Amino acid sequence: MRQFIPLALLASALLLCVPVPAAAANKEHEAIQRDIAMLGEELRRLQSSLNNEFTAMKTMVQQSINGSDKAQNSVLVLETRMTERMQSLEKSLSQTVATLNTKVDTMADEFRAIKEESKEANARLLKMTTKLDDLKTLIQLLPSQLQQQAPSALGPPQADNNGQPPPGGIAPPPVPTAVNGAKLFEDADRDRLAGKNDLAIKEYREFVKQYPRSERSCEAQFRVGELLMKKDDIPNAAAEFDMVIERYDSTCTFQPAARYQKGKAFVKAGQPTAAKDEFRRLAEDYKGTEWERKAKEALKDIGFSASAPPVRKKARR
To answer: CA–CA separation, 168 vs 157, rounded Å?
Structure first.
């Protein structure tokens, strides 16, 4: 094996030392150079084309980016303007709504005050009407009272033998007796319990008219108001309760009941403020009694406290 290796090396060296013709080598070299030159030129053209394409693409991308930035800026500007406009409109609308709410609240307060004033005026008118009716009744009773007082002052007229008054004499009017008054009151009570309200009202009023100084006149006046309440004749019922309160003194046991029913009449008439004042006065004047409890329950039913809130003093400046 070792002898063959040098031989092989020697053969290779001989082959390398064999001369190649010079003309053929030059032609092949020139052809290779031409091919290399052509290949380089092609590479340069390709490089130039790629550079141009890359530049164009870069320009297009930059233009696209610039256009996108401009569009985005336009959108941002438009969004900013719309936001500012919406905020301005919202602020303006809020101010307008607040102003309208204030005006509506002011108008509601004014209407409420007008309503309360009209109710108070109606109450005063009812009192005045009641007093005028009382005055009218007194005027109507004045002739009969004068006739009753005249014979007592001048003496009874002398009657003839037949019991007739002399010519020109004035016969004394019939004087109501206690028996007649008691029967009239009992008839009114009976008709009231039987549900004959209109008849009972007429009889109670007749009793008050004929017996204004009777101990039961106060009760008769109260019963009239009570029956009018059942008929939902609230203004006249309140006027009757007012007469019980104003005409009779504390000896009338129906005074607190009349004040309580007057408060109820105010509630039915839609005047809670007037009812509140009436119930609070009743609770204050009849402390420790059943009427205080009823008045406080009535105040609770219409949404008021039993006592008036303390008055706040204004701070000095």
So the answer is: 10
Q: Which residues contact 282 (CB under 8 A, 6 or more apart)?
A: 256, 259, 260, 263, 291, 292, 295
- Local structure of residue 253 (DSSP, 8 states): T
- Report which of 258, 186, 195, 251 is spatially closest to residue 223, judged by C-alpha positions: 258
Q: Name residue, tokens 């020697």.
A: 10
Would you give the DSSP letter of residue 170? -
Query: What CATH number is given for 175-301 in this structure?
Result: 1.25.40.10
Q: Between the CA of residue 254 and those of 35, 94, 164, 189, what are the distances in Å?
A: 140, 58, 45, 16
Q: Which two tokens stand for residue 136?
A: 């009218």
What's the rounded Cα separation, in Å, for the pair 249 and 125? 23
Count, residues in the chain: 317
CA atoms in the 13 A half-sphere facing the CB of 50: 6
pLDDT digits (tens, 9 = 90+) for 199-244: 999 999 999 999 988 889 999 999 999 999 999 999 999 999 999 9
Delimit the domains of the chain by residue range. Answer: 175-301
Residue pair 204/224 in contact (Cβ under 8 Å)? The answer is: yes
pTM for the full predicted model = 0.44
307 near 280, Cβ under 8 Å? yes
Q: How far is residue 180 from each of residues 176, 211, 213, 226, 300, measured CA to CA in Å?
A: 6, 10, 15, 24, 45
Distance in angstroms (rounded) separating the CA atoms of residues 68 and 75: 10
d(CA 216, CA 183): 12
